[in-house]
Design a protein that fits this description.
- It contains 10 helices and 6 strands, in the order αββββαβααβαααααα.
- By secondary structure, it is of the alpha+beta class.
- Strands 5-4-1-6 form a 4-stranded mixed beta sheet, with helices on both faces.
- The radius of gyration is 22 Å and the shape is globular.
- Pfam families: HEPN (PF05168).
- This is HEPN domain-containing protein.
């Protein structure tokens, strides 16, 4: 794992070193502190200020920090980390936000061994800010098919439930004539459906909201997906672009227009997508079961 943060601006380095000092002082059983996410990848945004749809907006990447302990409860760790956050975050307009997560070293190594994508990605991309040198991180091992099946089932339950919930909200918005809000929830139903398919088939899920990219990756798992979004007419292309744009436009653009007719056309498509997602995901899980 990488250890240097020399590529970061001096102020960012000072912030991170101060976090290390405060965390190790308040949680003496801290074993590792790992920076992950955009700051670890050197893809962070320090302050992006612009006008979107006539509204001034700003964005800053968070410091994402994993605190690894031994013999500390989640409740105590959360309490201490919240206190550090409160002490640090005095000027929201100028300071970089921080997001802490806590894991026990034993549990973390179990996740890495089992190939849990969130934790293996942290190990691969993260930067070690502090190391007690009492423990080492595990290596991912080849998974048995019963373990693959278990993970696939967990991901299916979590993501497919989310897809269904977004679809229910979209239907409610439709009934209330909230068509723009409905389009955002249809986008989220699609996003979670595509992520369900990807997770069940690969146990990995790189962060992605772009429906074109998600569709491009998952369509190989079932030719039926092409019938949902055939992209073979001007109208089909328009509907898919509207759905894709809704992730940003429906929330932030007051001039974004979605009609009843748009939702009339999109609702059955998204319902069909969820049906296909359920079918191919359950079939893949059954395939894993036969290999146990």
């Amino acid at each position: 794992m990488k250890k240097s943060i020399a590529y970061l601006p001096q102020k960012k380095q000072r912030d991170l070193l101060r976090f290390v000092e405060q965390i190790t002082a308040r949680l003496p059983k801290t074993q590792m502190i790992i920076l992950y996410g955009s700051y670890a990848r050197n893809e962070f945004v320090d302050c992006d200020e612009k006008v979107e749809f006539g509204v001034p907006t700003s964005y800053r990447s968070d410091y994402d920090i994993l605190v690894v302990t031994d013999g500390v409860t989640d409740q105590r760790a959360t309490r201490m980390l919240d206190a550090i956050d409160d002490m640090y975050y005095q000027d929201p307009e100028l300071q970089t936000p921080v997001e802490f997560i806590h894991e026990n070293i034993k549990r973390l190594n179990e996740y890495i061994e089992a190939g849990r994508y969130f934790y293996t990605q942290i190990k691969e991309e993260g930067i070690l800010l502090y190391d007690s040198e009492k423990f080492t991180l595990a290596e991912q091992r080849p998974l048995r098919f019963d373990e693959i099946k278990l993970q696939a089932e967990e991901y299916f339950k979590e993501r497919f439930e989310s897809a269904n919930e977004f679809l229910l909200v979209a239907q409610f918005c439709y009934e209330e004539k909230l068509y723009k809000k409905g389009s955002f929830n249809l986008h989220q139903a699609c996003e979670n459906s595509f992520q369900t398919i990807r997770l069940v088939h690969t146990l990995t899920n790189p962060k992605q909201h772009n429906l074109s990219k998600l569709f491009s990756f998952t369509r190989k798992y079932s030719s039926d997906l092409l019938s949902v979004f055939p992209n073979d007419t001007i109208e089909e292309k328009r509907l898919f672009e509207l759905l894709k744009s809704a992730y940003i436009e429906a929330r932030y653009n007051p001039k974004f227009i979605v009609t009843k007719e748009d939702i009339d056309a999109l609702l059955p498509k998204v319902k069909r997508l969820l049906e296909i997602t359920k079918q191919i995901s359950e079939a893949k899980i059954a395939e894993y079961a036969k290999l146990i």
